[in-house]
Amino acid sequence: MRNIENIVAFNDKFVENRDYEQYLTDRFPDKRMVIVTCMDARLTELLPKALNLRNGDAKIIKNAGGIVTQPFGNIMRSILIAVYELGADEVLVIGHHECGMTGLDPENVIQHMTASGVKDDTINTLLHSGMDLKRWLTGFDNVHDSVLKSVSIIRNHPLLPPGTPVHGLIIHPGTGKLDLLTNGYDANPAHPA
């Protein structure tokens, strides 16, 4: 069987056996936090376990690199919705060591696109259309600076409630060890810990 067939077959049994009952919760995060992190597969189970999170404890937003690149992009919109509509009152940005976005070369990504069948005309049109395709596909030099940049974008967002703690951390994808780069409570001492 192929992946999707395995998934659907498993899901039929999952629902039939009522295995979902152990995960029942509502849409509001019990620990009132929103986490921005990387889509790296090593973090799927490790990150929640390393943070002592159970289903329903936090809103988790994932993308390549766990980064916020635009103050009015999809990631920031999701953070604001989590804060204003879903009860989150603090934000964690969690990057990780050995991230694939570290040193990502947009030229290599574009070569992989064309090798996979994306036409050169499509790439050239995008490169000359005003869209900065190479910048869009560029990674970062190091995870430490990337996390701090994302934290800065979030902390300084004009629509984030004043005093919202925004923390920056790095997790090791093998051990789950966390390094705290910036404590949002220190940046907002009036917020209750």
UniProtKB/TrEMBL annotation:
UniProt cross-references to InterPro entries, sorted A to Z: Carbonic_anhydrase, Carbonic_anhydrase_sf
Protein's UniProt keywords contain Chloroplast: no
Keywords: Metal-binding, Zinc
GO molecular function terms noted in the UniProt entry: carbonate dehydratase activity; zinc ion binding
Broadest EC class assigned to this enzyme: lyase
Reactions mediated catalytically: hydrogencarbonate + H(+) = CO2 + H2O
Protein's name in the database: carbonic anhydrase
Native organism: Paenibacillus nasutitermitis
